[in-house]
Amino acid sequence: MNKEFSFIILTFNEEIHLPRLLESIAGLNARIYILDSGSTDDTLKIAEKYKAEVKTNAFENHPKQWDFALKNFDIETPWIIGLDADQIVTPELFVMLQDFKSDNFSHVNGIYFNRKNYFKGTWIKYGGFYPKYLLKMFRTSVGYSDLNENMDHRFVVPGQTEVWKKGHITEENLKENKISFWIAKHNRYSDLTAQEEVERLGNLRNQTVQPKFWGSPDERIAWLKKMWWKMPLGLRPFLYFTYRLFFRLGILDGSNGILFHFLQGFWFRLIVDVKIKEILKSNDVNSLNK
Fold first, then answer.
1. Model confidence over 144-170: pLDDT tens digits?
2. Hey, which of 70, 217, 218, 238 would disulfide with 133, CB 3.0 to 4.6 Å?
3. Which residues are CB-neighbours of 238 under 8 A, at least 6 positions away?
């Protein structure tokens, strides 16, 4: 059994994705821990087939689900790799993990993997979506889930990190090939994002990661988010979509890519802004009625 790292995976009705992921890491001989949130398909049978340890927890949001996973699994290895069920470890990353020795990484507490994101079978290479570095590997009991986020989940570690540019994880949610699924999913996400932004306006949430333009990948994202929150509601989705499509060459991603940039970069963010305005208006009305 691998003594260097273990995998934690979140699932909910992932029978279409889980075999693909588990096959990609099977040869690493690492322990697998799965936190499920009430699957009704064959997800748990697949987990049993691959001898994964499974726990169940009701889903509220991704940051809290990851927090539960990190606190409730008894991880014995010095490192943890946290993956989503619709991700896959590529052969190149597999080799890097196969050769991983904790003693060689005593100077860091976390490692960023490079992600390739796919939509309807198309690699989203432009529009600012590649390279995309995600902190996925971190020291046990050192890395934690950022609970200051309501929708986006990220792991946080103190101290130094390292970026692996060559090893990739691929991410493709096959359920999203049906546009109705994508819209319904992101409509739910827009509720969480709008509520989060309203709470940030009221100083009820802070950024865990310090915003630094020239910092780590997550510090840079924190800086960009800080700028985003200062932009005018309703206008910023138009500016962002234009930026992604033309300045970051998203138009080169082809028809599927342009659809993705429109949905994720414009439609989703416009819906968020509309919901933020609705919440603020509702709050103003409620305060007047008190």
1. 999 999 988 999 999 999 999 998 999
2. 217
3. 266
